[in-house]
Design a protein that fits this description.
five-stranded antiparallel sheet; disordered C terminus; 2 domains; OB fold (Dihydrolipoamide Acetyltransferase, E2P); alpha+beta
Amino acid sequence: MTRVVLENVTKAYGDSVAVDRLNLEIESGSFFSIVGPSGCGKTTTMRMIAGLERPDTGRIWIGDELVFSSKDSILIPPGRRGVGMVFQSYALWPHMTVKDNISFGLKSRKLDREVIEKQTQDVLQLMQIPQLGSRFPSELSGGQQQRVALARELVTDSRVLFMDEPLSNLDARLRMDMRTELKRIHAATGRTIVYVTHDQLEALTLSTALVVMNAGTMQQHGTPDEIYVRPINKFVSEFIGLTPINFIDGQVTNGSFTLADEVRLPGLEQHQHHIEDGTKVTLALRPEDIKLADEPTKGILVGKVETVLTAGSSAFVQVLLNGGGHPVRLMVQEFHLGEGMKARSKGEQVYLTFDASRAMLFDPDTGASLRATPATRSPSRASLHGLKDHL
């Protein structure tokens, strides 16, 4: 197993900075995702680690080996970094069988025929495709081709395996199946995997750790749960989540969150962390953290159903809050737990409650979190210096 460390890594294309002074540590044996919108620098980061792009500044370690240093003029080529790559396109040789595609890298190393045969059969078993060994790529489905492309990299026993949006060409059902397979394979091999995706569902379900990037900079680094529950800023809260988050602008008044039209959200007092009265804030609530009730209780919010989007076991209900001339619309996710659940209808009056501990507060100007220090990690100076001393 191998860890990866980046120290002050920068890459620019002309006047455009793709990655800006990135400090990052990828723990050995982790399934690490780099996630963010298009153009955020995630693929460039992966390609710099793999050696396919040369950084302008900084240092990169793979395991105990310094593979790049702008200061020391060190640049280890990709073929000597001991890494494997799985791309969005499968890039299988069309004239070769599955077995020949998988064993191609082993043959280029001039290993014994018996060793090549055993390692090829072992990875075919691991990928659960031993029956496909004699087929050609044109005879395989998209999911089967992706398994072959993955098997071709696993068989070489590379130190780090890079995957650049490998599931984007598959349909929704196959993507789910392949996510399950990737989790199983990672558990079976213990390989360090660096996974690039813009799909937040993939990042949340596959990763043991992830980094969220935007405009070439690291926004937050941590576990999926840490980043989902304690986002460091408004961008992260909006990007990481399966449903659109609700943002409401207002201010803190008498220790509570109040909208411009004096609609007051109850239950937040103990979670404000001593924010001064009069401070303008943006409150964020995820749709799944808001509950709808049919009967009013003390401090409850009142609203009217505007739209209902049913999605099998759940429904997304847009509610317009009552009060004043400042319209506030909230998206609520209701889960249908069984028969007899009431379906909401347009124009229906409903009452909203929420768990105040799940609410998030951000500075409306900077987008920074106003809650307690969020769960975010980056390599400490001690960690980086420790690695340098070891080298």
